[in-house]
Amino acid sequence: MKIIGMFLIFLSLGLDAQAAGWESSATVTTSAGELHYRMAGSGRPLVLLHGYTGYSNQWRGFLAGFVDDYKVIAIDLPGHGQSSKLGARFTVADAATGVWEVMDHLGVKQIHGVGYSAGGMTLLQMALLQPSRVKAMVLASSAYSVPVAAPRELFETLPQGYQQDLLGNHGGDMEKIRAMLSASFLADMNIDSLRDLQTPTLLLSGDRDDSFPLPVVIETYAALPDARLWVVPGIGHALFWPWGGSAALARQFPPEVLRFFREIE
Prior knowledge:
single chain; alpha/beta; 9-stranded mixed beta sheet; two-stranded parallel sheet; 11 strands; globular
């Protein structure tokens, strides 16, 4: 394992997908509910998984960095975006199984993957379920466990900007948004389960991340046999996103991901 230092990770066919740079989109029935995905590019499959309360189109700003090398498949996690409404809980294991069922539907045998926050946990669980099918993965602002669960809040008590993001992310569907905000979040991965996982992994973390603090990221990194750690000083959970992340990191992220994927081949 080696550490990389750092000195300075949102339908049916329609015009909305194409306007954002996506070439196609569709919905698949899975054991985790109806899961919606968007695709663009050609080549080897690259799966992008967003964080909790996000949606697949949030990755649109990174498409240009990936589509020349990969067929990008961005998925709305259960209960998010254009996927069907959540029940009483969001379960990482169920999400991982559902995403694999989307891959089976698409005839995808093996993937590269990038997951942010809850999407990173889902990707890690996918590798644990079917390790031979994950060629390499990048976990951004993520780890095997969430040390402190975020308190559940009513939509009306959230900041106005966050309310507008939720409405935009989920098509203004208040029933879906309220289900997401009230659902319990379950991730049952054990640190010991990572020790035999040979999937090459890059973990990207801001050293000011309150959701996945650096100690749990380092614990995840240390448990994985083939892992690299990229720590960004002075950055919190938002990393490269417009809502508090670094624009410079957003520009650097795709080429660093591609470099990592090339190095492990």
